[in-house]
Amino acid sequence: MLLANWRLVRELLTAVDAALEVVDIRDPLMTRSIKFERLVERHGIPLILVLNKADLVPLTVSKAWKEYFSRQGVNAVFISAQKRMGTLVLRKVLKRALNNKKPITAGIFGIPKVGKSTLINTLKGRHSATTSPYPGTPGYTRRAQTFKIGEGVYLIDTPGLLPPDTNDVESEIRGKPIDSLDNPVATAVKLIRKIVSHYPTAFEEAYGIRSCEPDEILRLLALKRGWVYRKDGEPVLQESAKAVIRDYLSGKIPFYITPPRRVGSPPYRAW
Ligand SMILES: Nc1nc2c(ncn2[C@@H]2O[C@H](COP(=O)(O)OP(=O)(O)OP(=O)(O)O)[C@@H](O)[C@H]2O)c(=O)[nH]1
Ligand SMILES: [Mg+2]
C-alpha cells in the first residue's frame, strides 16, 4: 500500500498556499499527525484542521471538538464530506485564512481513510477523485493530484500520511490493508476495548450482541454469521475480527469520544 512519504509532503508544502489536515471526528486526537502539523508550521502556511465524518457523532460533540481546538489556537472546522455538510463554512474559512487571495492552491493531507478524496469530490460537486472504504483497497489515493474546485481555487489530493506512531489502534487499522494485518484478532480485541470504553452499547446496536467482552463479541459474531470451521463448528475468529475492523472504519459501529475537559489531559486510557 502506497503512503505519502515525508519528502513528498515537504515538496507539496513548499508548493501550496494552505494545508488542510483531515481527521476522523470520532477520535481526532488519535487520527491527527502532530509531526505533519509541525512541518506545516515550519513552512509558515495556514493550517486548517478538518474534523470530518461529523454525521457519525452528535452535533454537540462536533461543536465541543471545534471549541477544544479553537482554545488551542487551531483553526478547526467540522464537516461531513459524505453528507455535504459544513463545506460552505470550510470554503469561507479557507478564503479568510488566505485573505481572499486568488488563485490559491491548498493541499489536503491526513492519515489513510479519513475522507480526503471524498472531500475533494464534495467540493468539486462530482466524483473526480477515487475513494475506497478500507486501507489499500481499489480506489485509495496513490499519488498527489490537483483538482479545480472553483474559479482560481485548486486542491491537491494526496496519499495517506503514515499514521502517527502511537500505541493507539487507529494507527494499526489504517496503516496497511486489513488482510495484511499480522494478527487481526489481537488488533480487533484492542479496537473493541477502545470502542466499549467510550460506547458500551456499541455492539448491541451494531450486531445485537449484548456484551462488552472482546473475545465473546468475536465468538458470537462469527457464530451469528456462520463463520465456523467445518470440522468442529468452532468460530473463525479471524473473520469476525476483520469484520469488526471493517465495520468500524465504515462507521457501522457507533462510537465517538468527547474532548478532554482540560487542555492537555489525555482523553482516555491508551490501550
Ligand atoms: N460517514 C462518513 N463517511 C465518510 C465521510 N467522508 C468519507 N467517508 C468514507 O470514508 C471512506 C474513506 O474515504 P476516502 O475519501 O477514500 O478517504 P481518503 O482519506 O482519501 O483515503 P486514502 O486515499 O486511502 O488515504 C469511504 O468509505 C468514504 O465513503 C463522511 O463525512 N462521513
Ligand atoms: Mg484518497
Describe the structure.
Helices cover 40% and strands 12% of the residues. It has 271 residues and is α/β, with parallel strands linked by helices. Helix 8 packs across helix 11. The structure holds guanosine-5'-triphosphate (GTP) and magnesium ion. The site of magnesium ion has 6 residues, from helix 6.
List the helices and strands and how they pair.
Blueprint: H1 6-15, E1 18-24, H2 28-31, H3 34-43, E2 47-52, H4 59-71, E3 76-78, H5 87-97, E4 104-109, H6 116-124, E5 145-150, E6 153-157, H7 169-174, H8 184-198, H9 202-207, H10 214-225, H11 237-249
Parallel strand pairs: 1-2, 1-4, 2-3, 4-6
Antiparallel strand pairs: 5-6
The structure holds guanosine-5'-triphosphate (GTP) and magnesium ion.
Magnesium ion is lined by residues 116-117, 131, 140-141, 157.
